[in-house]
């Protein structure tokens, strides 16, 4: 049998005699049986540039007024994005991820091990996104964390109302004072991550902005890139002032306490800003849970609910 690629997307095995073997571009089939006759459809280099840049700038134009901006494409952020986009196809959702490669700390189960543990009832989220697992009673095991992350990411990226801007960092928050004088988060200030990392070495690299109704921050626990919005809120409302925003600081590891606390605590922490995932441990001073991922998925689910509550819908 010869492998035949029927355009688009379906791959079937067929007997070589059934394959009409024409030049690519002229046929609805490409046979891998005869590489001598193989060639790609022609293209001009500028066409490739335009194909990318036209779409990117159209997306920038479209999402500069978003309904929701999710900061950080780790397990909590992407779980929230999935639930939000699935339930509310009318909302425009921008995901801003500082790294070139989205996924955060969810490519391995822990240390350098592959298998990923999720305590029940987080298996319900795996059922929803159709990731297989072994049932071990109180917990389930996915054979590779990358299977969870790649499946989740692939589903998120297919929603028409989501745009992921990766290699882009949120470097500040847009703030407003409402009539009562309370600070409200009204969007994010962005820059290419490579630019954000070079503000000390170059001048005049002003940022860009995205306005939105609600920011969902899921930037992980404190580190070079972590806990971004929590730390910015602390500096916007410093200790000793009225209405100060103080950070509890993430505590040591306690799986049992940590996972419940993160899911229960996921909320709008200040008007216009919902915080979920491990960034919340820095706000509330809750424990870390280490290599068990159920709380990240379900904190994402609860964050989606909190975001919709901000809209009062
Ligand atoms: O690159 C970051 C990562 O992909 C991204 N990020 C951070 N700051 C950003 C900024 N602008 C844009 N200013 C930013 N993106 O946020 C993502 C965070 O992903 P994560 O996997 O670190 O966070 P999470 O809360 O989804 O999952 C954390 C999982 C746990 S628990 C744990 C422990 O207890 O030890 N450790 C990890 C990694």
UniProtKB/TrEMBL annotation:
One of its GO terms (biological process) is thiamine biosynthetic process. The keyword Metal-binding applies. It is an enzyme of class 2 (transferase). It catalyses: [ADP-thiazole synthase]-L-cysteine + glycine + NAD(+) = [ADP-thiazole synthase]-dehydroalanine + ADP-5-ethyl-4-methylthiazole-2-carboxylate + nicotinamide + 3 H2O + 2 H(+). The modification 2,3-didehydroalanine (Cys) is found at residue 204. Its EC number is 2.4.2.60. Signal peptide: none annotated. Its main location: cytoplasm. It is found in: Cytoplasm; Nucleus. Keywords: Cytoplasm, Iron, Metal-binding, NAD, Nucleus, Thiamine biosynthesis, Transferase. GO terms for molecular function: cysteine-dependent adenosine diphosphate thiazole synthase activity; iron ion binding. Binds 1 Fe cation per subunit. Involved in biosynthesis of the thiamine precursor thiazole. Catalyzes the conversion of NAD and glycine to adenosine diphosphate 5-(2-hydroxyethyl)-4-methylthiazole-2-carboxylic acid (ADT), an adenylated thiazole intermediate. The reaction includes an iron-dependent sulfide transfer from a conserved cysteine residue of the protein to a thiazole intermediate. The enzyme can only undergo a single turnover, which suggests it is a suicide enzyme. May have additional roles in adaptation to various stress conditions and in DNA damage tolerance. Homooctamer. Belongs to the THI4 family. HAMAP family: THI4 (MF_03158). This is Thiamine thiazole synthase. It comes from Australozyma saopauloensis. The gene is THI4.
